[in-house]
Amino acid sequence: MEWKLRSVALTVAVVLAVAACTMEMGAVAAQSLCKMSQEGVEACKPCISTVKPAEQPSDACCAALKQADLPCLCYYKNSNLLPYLGIDPKRAMQLPAKCSMVLPQQC
């Protein structure tokens, strides 16, 4: 169960990072990345940041994560980009549990 949590959390973090980078470049396509809206991505960034991270995700972050396509996010789980994008992988791995998520079996 712990490895599933880590896989989903890491995947979520990678997708959030990719979406954040894409949005910073002005692309509109990030709004539909694995069903995560731009607002949802922004809401989750504070709790997985490498700089002064928030302890708990906001209600908006958890709501966005619960609407996301988690199997889609799983495709990003092996990316090594997280630290380079300012995302703490350990904090990212905790995000689904902090949002009381049920993990998909296919992750």
Automatic annotation (TrEMBL):
GO terms for molecular function: fatty acid binding. One of its GO terms (biological process) is systemic acquired resistance. InterPro entries: Bifun_inhib/LTP/seed_sf, Bifunc_inhib/LTP/seed_store, DIR1-like, NsLTP-like. PROSITE patterns: PROKAR_LIPOPROTEIN. The keyword GTP-binding does not apply. Residues 34-107 form the Bifunctional inhibitor/plant lipid transfer protein/seed storage helical domain. SUPFAM superfamilies: Bifunctional inhibitor/lipid-transfer protein/seed storage 2S albumin. It holds the Pfam family LTP_2. Residues 1-30 form the signal peptide. Keywords: Signal. CDD domains: nsLTP_like (cd04660). SMART domains: AAI. This is Bifunctional inhibitor/plant lipid transfer protein/seed storage helical domain-containing protein.
